[in-house]
Design brief:
single chain, alpha+beta, four-stranded antiparallel beta sheet, four-stranded mixed beta sheet
């Protein structure tokens, strides 16, 4: 399948960042252990644009700042229709599998941990989500973004098939 990722420029976007996970990592050297920090951060404007980034540094704040800068370089546009996603989507990254299902108004974001941060950053207000397999936050974020990049709205489907919007809905 030809995968076309919808990249977004960061000009004129008010992005909010959410820290998903931070870990202390250790490098063992001849002189002993050296500690540093690894942070995964999700940024989004809560209106269909989001990205994730990984930052590593010797201090927590520096790692988060690097993660935010990396996330701003990897922004994607996601179709959000009436506060939910357009259709059911399944994706897998490494050992993490995610399942996203549209929900009616008033349902809220039924998702856990890393998936919740991603979906709220995108601007999805009503969705049912399930993560299966690995609970590794890095792989969960990547699997969620994989699912979000594969979402297509009716206009995109009509353009790709070169048919009218009515034919998309009425066969």
């Amino acid at each position: 399948m030809n995968k076309e990722v919808k990249r977004v420029k960061t000009i004129d976007l008010e992005l909010k960042d959410r820290l998903v996970s931070i870990q202390r990592v250790t490098k063992v050297t001849k002189g002993g252990r050296t500690f540093s920090f690894s942070a995964i951060v999700v940024v989004g404007n809560e209106d269909g644009v989001a990205g994730y980034g990984l930052g590593k540094a010797n201090e927590v704040t520096a790692a988060i700042a690097k993660g935010v800068e990396d996330a701003k370089k990897n922004l994607i546009r996601v179709p959000v229709i009436n506060g939910t996603i357009p259709h059911v989507q399944y994706a897998k990254y490494g050992g993490a599998s995610v399942f996203l299902k549209p929900a009616s108004e008033g349902t809220g974001v039924k998702a856990g941990g890393a998936m919740r941060a991603v979906l709220e950053s995108v601007g999805v207000r009503n969705v049912l989500a399930k993560s299966k397999g690995s609970s590794n936050p890095h792989n969960l974020v990547k699997a969620t973004f994989e699912a979000l990049t594969e979402l297509r709205d009716a206009y995109t489907v009509a353009n790709q098939r070169s048919i009218s919007l009515d034919k998309v809905f009425n066969g």
